[in-house]
Amino acid sequence: MAELRQRAAVEMEATIDSIGDDLLHNILSRLPALACANAACVNRSWNLIITSLLSLPNLSSALSINPSLQDAVHEAVDKVLSKPVRPQFAIASIGPTFSLQQAHQLITGKLGSRIPIITLISQGIFGCNAVNDEFEEVQWQFIENDEAHPDHGNENHGVLLTVGFFPGLKVSLIPLLSKTQGTQALMIDELVRNIRECSSSVSGSASPVAILLFSDHETDMKPVLQKLDYAFCPETVIVGEGGSQFLYQGEAAVNHCNDAEYSSAAVALSFLRDTGNPPGVGETQFHVVLAPGIAQIGPTYKAVAVKERPGDFSTWLTAKREAQVESLDGLTMLDQIYDEFGGDLYCSALYIGVSKRRKCSIGKERASWIYLQEFHEVLRGDEEYLYVNGVGIRSGDSFQFYLANANATRDSCNSASNNLTCLKRDLDHQNAGRSTSNNVNSKKKSVFGCIMFSCCGRGEFFLQPILDCSPFMENFPGITFSGTFSAAEIARGDLSPYGPVSEEHSSLRCCLHVYSTVYLIMSYTPASPST
Questions:
Q1: Where are the alpha helices (DSSP H) in 81-204?
Q2: Which residue spans traverse the membrane (predicted)?
């Protein structure tokens, strides 16, 4: 009997192998991740095919709006692992009704402890539904008095899970810690040094390819982004979201939620170029498109008297218009802007974009000048001061007013669509060049995924859902696409997305945005046949 079973197994294996590599490749590519891993143990030919499948670029994402946390996590995990994938990292966004601790434990329990995992509470999620494969957008409402809205909690549930494998890169998770005893201070220099050391050990370069950054709602990310922008080469992509509660796991990273000395203020996923790759591995690249939702209005002002109020994290200031001597109070400035705007200014979100020249250094390094623009929300104005949110403004800093409204938001959405169309056209042009210079069978560079961070306030300007999603979905249909609504959008760059930039402002950097949408697009260029 045993001999018959052995003979049958050998005959079955021979029969399956006889169908040809192409058909076998097609069959194995449809296996779930766990079954695919088991199939790799069958024989050498299967192992080679599955190794090839798992070496392809992959961004897999799934959304569940099941009111049960356990069921929602189960649905999302099953969906992202329904095809061959070898996750290097995972990001899970959950609704405020769910327990962050329980969600993190469930997700890490299913995905294991070998990869970096970040679990966070977002303002909303969008992506492909794990049950019906339809694209959905879910934005949650945060209400302080839950007792006044007993049914509200039932709507604030959901899980979005995104996992990825990026060929040619390694992923490392590094937290930004804050001292909780004595003078509270963000350990920004330590974060920069840790990223530099990690990147140097993997790639030989102190600058990573990209940094995906998440911060909590109490952390002022402006000084953090100042140093990150200063410390790393211009090619390093830095994107992310602020204002979230989060937990994380990594090989050497430990949550400090119960630590009496330190707390975790932010966490960075660093993507590092791996110089130890075997031959035949292509290149993963990141592309960023920013759609700002605010438009510049009015003249340029220069801050005169500035009073910081660290207690309520605000600044009081007076200013004067360029080429004028008279100092203006807050009410006068707002009246001037109102007269020039000619609309219902007080029903729109108003900001000032402050141009700053500061010295910056890491540790004991020699300091250098940096030039940046940062946005501060206008709180109000009276006959003494203009009151704005945040600190870090100095006398002599110049600023302009920016207005968030429906026109600015829709214009930015159209601009993002044009930029993504240009990206698609550039990829097509490069692929045409590869086919001409190499051979007609050369593999093409392609986009394989996109993660989007959108301001939770932009939705109120749209009369239809998923309008911010349309630019990517129309240009790259069928490609994995998901994201979150956030309280602050991080995207390193200059001021060009905000419109024409004067020569004076051409060197200004801007990393933290408001009423904006950030598209992080991933593409892959296969290795040339000779590699």
A1: 100-111, 188-203
A2: none
* Weakest-pLDDT range from 79-83, 257-261, 320-324, 493-497: 257-261
Collapsed DSSP state (helix, strand, coil) of residue 24: helix
Q: Is residue 323 classed exposed, middle or buried when 0-12, 13-18 and 19+ CB atoms within 10 A define those classes?
A: exposed
Place of tokens 């996750």: 87
E strand or H helix at 262, and its extent?
strand 262-273
pLDDT tens-digit series, residues 148-161:
444 444 478 999 99
Helical axes 44-54 vs 21-28, angle rounded to 10°: 60
Q: Is 343 helix (H, G, I), strand (E, B) or coil?
A: coil
- Cα separation of 493 and 69, whole Å? 38
Burial 171-205 (b: 16+ CB within 10 A, else e): bbbbbbbbeeeeeeebbbeebbbbbbebbeebbeb
CB 178 within 8 A of CB 185: yes
In the structure encoding, which two tokens stand for residue 88, read together?
A: 């290097």
**pTM over 0.85, yes/no:** yes
Least Cα distance to 213 among 91, 364, 104 occurs for 91
**Residue of 146, 164, 168, 167 whose CA lies nearest to 155:** 146
Q: How far is CA 17 from the centre of its chain?
A: 43
Q: Are residues 94 and 104 in contact, defined by beta-carbon separation less than 8 angstroms? A: no
SS3 133: coil
pLDDT digits (tens, 9 = 90+) for 99-137: 999 999 999 999 988 899 999 999 999 999 999 999 999
Q: Confirm if 225 and 241 have CB atoms less than 8 A apart.
A: no
Tokens of 96: 């405020």
Q: Which structure tokens are listed for 70?
A: 């356990």
What is the structure's pLDDT at 218? 87
Residue 165 CA to residue 449 CA, distance in Å, equals 11
* DSSP label of 76: H
Beta strands 294-309 and 398-404, pairing class: antiparallel
Distance CA 95, CA 112 (A): 22
Is 459 within 8 Å of 215 (Cβ atoms)? no
- pLDDT (tens digit per residue) in 278-330: 777 889 999 999 999 899 998 999 999 999 998 899 999 999 998 888 999 99
Average pLDDT, the chain: 86
For 196, the token pair is: 């530099």
Q: How many residues does the chain have?
A: 531
Cα–Cα nearest to 442, from 450, 427, 431:
431
Dihedral sign from CA coordinates of 140, 146, 151, 153: positive
Q: What is the biggest distance separating any 2 CA atoms in the chain, rounded to whole angstroms?
A: 102
Which has the closest alpha carbon to 476: 430, 526, 421?
421
